[in-house]
Amino acid sequence: MKNIIYSISFVILCCMAIQKADAKKRNGKSPNIVLILIDDFGYGDVGCYGATGFQTPNIDGLANDGMRFTNFYAAQPVCSASRAGLLTGCYPNRIGFHGALMPDDKIGMNASEYTLAEMLKEKGYVTKAVGKWHLGHYDKFMPLKHGFDEFYGLPYSNDMWPRDNVSGEKVKPKSKRAGYCELPLMRDKKTERHITSMDDQAQLTTWYTENAVSFIEKNADQPFFLYFSHSMGHVPLGVSDKFKGKSEQGRYGDVVMELDWSVGEIVRVLKQKGIEDNTLLIFTSDNGPWLNYGNHAGSTGGLREGKSTSWEGGQRVPMIIKYPGYTPSGRINNDLTCAIDILPTLTKIVGGQLSDNKIDGIDVSEMWQGKVNAKERDHVLFYYGDNFLNGIRKGNWKLVLPHEWKSYETKPGRNGKNGRRISKQINELELYDLTRDPSERYNVAKLYPKKVKELMIDVEKARQELGDSNVGIDRGSNNREIGKL
Question: Tell me: the pLDDT tens digits for 23-42?
């Protein structure tokens, strides 16, 4: 009996040693990196985060095999700013980004900014952006000028076209969108075709996925970086016949099921090429759901408000990382982190170098490894609009500063039509304990005056460095200019 036990123990120890050796070998190579970014995707839009009415088995599979974060924040609660922060490691207002760029804007990513793609390219990676860009649509602002070897996708949001978001028909001449061009689906610098109907919108997820899969197949023998930024689930919602009518939730659920299929296709080709174990895969969202679209919008999972607000529903989003032999399997991470941390963390993992530009992200690679007492972010700043500092989170405490916002707490739209939003304002400091009150409904500022005072020290530092238009400081001491024509 003892011999049997010793034999079993010996086999287990040998297996553990082999696993450690394999992990060491994998980590000694440059990992492929796939970063999947979903548009307007809420905290409650994934099965493992509590979604109902549809299934996301492939995304849930990433969480089962990797690490799921519960306190991860987008860089800002709106498209362009959020993406700028993710790719540069900066609070977007530091580099001049506020809100979402429009097709008639003549600004974009400054050539002096150093992106995640540029860092990886310097480490010998082949790089590609697939999907929505939205960091300036003139040539000097586009992906090929910011570290990407290839680009396939739209230069901005899929609703920035001269058509109705429900029927796909041309809008009336007096409409704001009437002056927009048809949506250009681009390959590198050239327009391959135009998106001119809802049928075209319905194919975007499939076209993007096929292109992304082809890129992986072509570059499986060398380190690659795939920045896969979906247009969905931004309105107008397009879903192919493969998933139309498949969910209990309706059109939005169908769209999410197709996005989940897309994730599955990426995992499938990684396995097929034998490179899954040496690929670091990140799944997240650019901001929370656009709730005034009602049943064509996602879910915050009970968090307050949504996209373009500084409440939790606007900026706290799903985040999953899978990197076999590096991230623990099935781990839930409750530490505080932000999209601006991705650049410095990946820089550490691949042995790259950051530029001399001041950034706000921090290296959280030990957190991704699941190490005990790993370094986490000290605080997250909630900026929005023209440099308005609306709040700060530190630990489990969130201080909301006096500000105005457009609230979703009114009647939403349905079936692709947007509902109205109402203006709201708070005039005093509000403090929330997010451990007990993640929905931010119980202001405890009067109960914890010392905590308010402590957080205000960090607020004043941020105001001096980055500004705060709420108190008349439009620029701080260390803002940089956005790119201009």
Answer: 444 546 799 999 999 999 99
CA distance 485 to 481: 12
Per-residue pLDDT averaged across 74-82, rounded? Answer: 98
pLDDT tens-digit readout, 451-481 = 999 999 999 999 999 999 999 999 999 999 9
Give the DSSP per-residue string, 86-117.
Answer: HHHSS-GGGGT--S---TT--EE--TTS--HH
What does the domain layout of the chain look like in residue ranges? 29-378, 381-484
3-state SS string for 113-146: CCCHHHHHHHCCCEEEEEEECCCCCCHHHCHHHC
Percent of the chain scored above 90 by pLDDT? Answer: 93
- Find residue 279's DSSP bridge partners: 32
Q: What are 195's two structure tokens? A: 């998106």
Report the topology of domain 29-378: Alkaline Phosphatase, subunit A (3.40.720)
What are the catalytic residues? 79, 134
Structure token pair of residue 67 = 């690490």
CA distances from 122 to 32, 116, 216, 296, 351 (A): 14, 10, 19, 41, 11
CB 252 within 8 A of CB 244: no
CA distance 2 to 4: 5
Nearest 10 degrees: Cα torsion 202, 206, 207, 212:
150
Identify the CA nearest to 316 among candidates 224, 391, 412: 391
Thinking of the domain 381-484, which architecture would CATH place it in? 2-Layer Sandwich (3.30)
Give, in order, the Cα–Cα distances in Å from 287 to each of 72, 73, 125.
11, 8, 28
Whole-number average pLDDT of the chain: 94
What are the Cα distances from residue 100, in Å, to 59, 81, 176, 314, 384?
27, 7, 16, 14, 11
Placement of tokens 């991705």 in the chain: 342
User: Model confidence over 137-160: pLDDT tens digits?
Assistant: 999 999 999 999 999 999 999 999
**Omega cis (within 30) before 236:** yes
Q: Which two tokens stand for residue 128?
A: 């590609």
Q: Please report the pLDDT score of residue 8 as a whole number.
A: 41
The 10s digit of each residue's pLDDT in 92-148 is: 999 999 999 999 999 999 999 999 999 999 999 999 999 999 999 999 999 999 999
